Every structure is written in structure tokens, then in C-alpha cells.
Amino acid sequence: VEYLQSILETADFKNNVIHTRWLETQTQTKHVVTRPTDRNAVLLSASYIAWHVLSDARKGFLSQIERGRLVDVADTEGLQRHNVTLRYQSNKYNVIAFLTGPSTMNLRLGEYCYGPVVVRELNTSK
């Protein structure tokens, strides 16, 4: 996790100018990597889980509409919000993720709200 966090924080990754050789140079370069705080680890994990659950729900909903199914209000539940429960370092965390845009969400952990979390997915198609 620490290694991935250091990769995700590099300017090259943020600017999407990475390639295989770049990754190899990163693995050969010795980085001082610090362990993320428990809160950051939980928020990163929850955002990953929630994003994929909400994306799958959205794809399923759109598929039903494309097949001509009539939409009911109950069908829209789960498209904007997802509850994530995680255990980390012997603690249980409940995080609520709310979509706020096509690629953004806010996370609520306890009384605090974090965000917007901007999600960028790598384009794997060529």
C-alpha cells in the first residue's frame, strides 16, 4: 500500500505520462515511503470499493433502460450512495460514499465529510 501510494502521488502519474519503463525506474529508485494514516487507508479503500459498486449499479441501471424496462423510483436506490464497512488495524469503520458528479464523490466517516474525491480510471483499451 505504501509503495502504491508513493507512485500515485508522483507528478508523472497525476499528469498521466507514465509507461512501463517509467514504472521500472520507480521500482529501482529508493523512495522513503511512509505508511498512510489509518484514516487515509480507510478512506482510500472505501473510495475504491464504493466507486466500483456504484459504477456497476449505474451500468446495470442503464442496461435495463436500454432494454426498454420502465424505471421505478426504487430502481434508482443505490445509484448515488453506498455504505462501506471496513475492518482495519482491529477497528471497524463505516464510511458512506455519495456521488457528487460523473467522477467525484464525497465520503463521510463519522461526523466528518471528506471530498471531493476525484476518481480517474486508466483507459485500458487500445
From TrEMBL:
One of its GO terms (molecular function) is acetyl-CoA carboxylase activity. It comes from the Eukaryota. InterPro entries: ACCA (IPR049076). GO terms for biological process: fatty acid biosynthetic process. This is Uncharacterized protein. It comes from Beta vulgaris subsp. vulgaris (Beet).
